[in-house]
Amino acid sequence: MNRTFLIIGLTIILCAGFRNAVNIWNPPAHFPAPVYDFKKEPLTAEKVHLGKLLFYDPILSRDRSISCASCHSPFNAFAHTDHDLSHGIDDRIGTRNAPALMNLAWQREFMWDVASNHLHAQALAPITNPQEMDEQPENIIRKLNRSALYRQLFELSFGDTFITTSRIVVSLAQFQLTLISADSKYDRVMDGREQFTAQENNGYKLFRQHCATCHREPLFTNSEFHNNGLPGDPILKDAGKYTITQRPSDSLLFKVPTLRNVEYSYPYMHDGRFKTLYQVLGHYTGGISRSTTLAKELQQPIVLKPNEQTDLVAFLLTLSDRNFIFNPQHGPPRSKIFSPPPKD
After folding, report:
1. Which one, 32, 243, 280, 344, has the greatest CB density within 10 A?
2. Does residue 300 sit in the same domain as residue 250?
3. Are residues 306 and 267 in the same domain?
4. Are 175 and 208 within one domain?
5. Hey, how many other C-beta atoms are within 10 angstroms of the C-beta on 105?
């Protein structure tokens, strides 16, 4: 059989299967309205499928050694657990821990320091960062154009085989928009399908008393930037949002991460300094460093007895969404058809 027709046939079959297997957009009823503008860029199965392939393909890095998924593993809530700080090509060490990726349609700003204010632009930062993927869009376009499969996928997604930076980032964004986590025990309790244990219920009360202002339900983040009192790292000297804005009032402000799937997304904080949730609670109990930009909610330490810490952690574990973590539609493509093209 002609190779071109074989590729086209396989592509159509794969996209059709993807369309049937994935509910493209089904926002939870108990979530607020998304902030992403779907009217400007409606989701399509073809673009989501293309975005997934690009997300897992190391072709996006300069030496084809890492992909987006190298630092955003589906089995770690699209974060990673093997390093405190993210590692790029040539094992270059970055300055921050890769944040988890989920429920992105409800976020206005991205990165720990608000370096990106749109999901489309967010993908370009790690791709072009010398410490991460160290590649340029024009090189990626050249590599993708050498793949008959990718040319066909771009045609199915956009109507022609013209590959551009804009189409690449749109496709990556569309896949990431489907990463919705909303089926944890917490969600089932809120829906009346399950009940908390006595310990989890006590932990929930403690959470609402001490944590809910910044980690606002049901997304478990207020998507704002705060100084949570972490002592500065003398080596990294990371000033957070100030790095972008150069406003003194933004010094040491970092984005509040979601607590959904926190069981899977360790290590914690922007620099991955804490390995366990108990270490995190220990920081808020007795490790807060005071400064002029310290969040008003943390002007006094959060004092919890050991049994209360245990109860609070028990509640946090109810935020684990195993159907999200182990959803095969989010995971890496298994067919050899998805293998990256040969090296240049």
Report:
1. 280
2. yes
3. yes
4. no
5. 21
Helix (H, G, I), strand (E, B) or coil at 7: helix
Instruction: Encode pLDDT of 181-211 as tens digits.
Output: 999 999 999 999 999 999 999 999 999 999 9
For residue 205, the number of C-alpha atoms closer than 13 Å in the C-beta half-sphere is: 9
Domain of 36, in residue numbers: 3-181
Q: Is residue 344 part of a domain?
A: no
Total Cβ atoms within 10 A of residue 32: 11
Q: Which pTM value belongs to this model?
A: 0.90
DSSP-derived secondary structure for 189-245: HHTTS----HHHHHHHHHHHHHTTTTS-TTTT----EEB--PPPPTTT---BTHHHH
Same domain for 131 and 34, yes or no, is: yes
In this structure, are residues 80 and 118 in contact, taking their beta carbons and an 8 Å threshold? Answer: no
C-alpha torsion sign, points 305, 309, 314, 315:
positive
Structure tokens that stand for 155 in this block: 């045609």
Same domain, 38 and 169: yes
Q: What's the structural domain count of the chain?
A: 2
The 10s digit of each residue's pLDDT in 242-264 is 999 999 999 999 999 999 999 99
Using alpha carbons, select from 276, 305, 203 the residue that is nearest to residue 211: 203
CATH code (residue 160): 1.10.760.10
CA 115, 120, 125, 128: dihedral to nearest 10 degrees?
-150
Residue 214 near residue 296 (C-beta atoms within 8 A)? no
